[in-house]
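The following record pairs a protein chain with its ligand, 4'-deoxy-4'-aminopyridoxal-5'-phosphate.
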Amino acid sequence: MSDLPLRAELVGEAPYGAPTDPLPVRLNVNENPYPPPAQVVHLMAGEVAAVLGDLNRYPDREALGLRTALAGYLGRGLGAERIWPANGSNEVMQQILSAFAGPGRSMLSFAPTYSMYPVYARDTMTRYRTEPRTADHRIDFAGAQRSIAADPPSVTVVASPNNPTGTPLGLDEVRRLHELVSGSGVLVVDEAYAEFSDEPSALHLLDGLDRLIVVRTLSKAFGLAGLRVGYAVTSPEIVDALRIVRLPYHLSATTQIVATTALRYAEELLAPVAEVVAERQRQAAWLREHGVEVADSQANFLLIGPLGDSHDVFTRLQQHGVLVRETGVPACLRVSIGTPEENEAFRRAFSAVTEPRRETP
Ligand code: PMP
């Protein structure tokens, strides 16, 4: 391995990914805890069977059927020419960086945030930089303005709701950021968790802001993380730029047909969202009653802490069969919202792990 002609910045790097220990309660990657309903699974299987006989042919390179179905889901008069899907929003983001960033250019984000952003930057030979968020996890506009004026970024990305804090960005904040960055680059609002949030979507602003890209996914609220479909919603010109850097036939025929079918049953697939939101509120209230600080989340997870030695809490939760996430925010842990039973299991384990210590004078 040591004599491989690997790019210098990749030497010693590990593949990205959370631990995947097969524990009974896995609350570490913000999945929807509910699988697709049986009747939708059955319908998807029928549609897949119908395309399997054509697998000697390449799929539709432009994924027009899926883009039309996504347009139908989003409404607001958005046409297929403004939508671009790929294998997860991860791949959409990589395409955005390939098209708009690269050597000599930078990507700006606001920390703490999604830990894949520096990976997209590294892989596209883009310089990654962050501005710190305020104590309540919002954008510090004075700092952002200074940084952008001194060193204009080609791509600015902000997750709303943000991972790992769960805090959203208001529409006024999206407008302000767009004004700051649109002279030199594009603004990406990563709305992976939008369907769990009360905050209006940045999709409302697409008609006025021509450098805005809203990125979404079927992995979270739709409960289709295993399918790998995410999509950008933006201007037709930006979609055309992404089409230049995409690999031909990047979305398989089976992926396209399953996602297209799933969107016909959007209401059924999204039905658990209300329960996940109610459980998030219950979980946050319980933690606060027990003296634990919780960020104001609009997503399907909570950032909790400070917890003192959070690594010790993480390890002891694991011993109780509960897997949560260390995201690099000092003394904090992130816990996804699961089924009521899983959330209850988390509360039991958390009490067992932390209460003896809290009672010790
Ligand atoms: N954006 C954010 C903020 C995320 O937290 C995640 C998933 N953890 C993604 C994007 C990636 O989602 P996908 O499965 O669509 O690639």
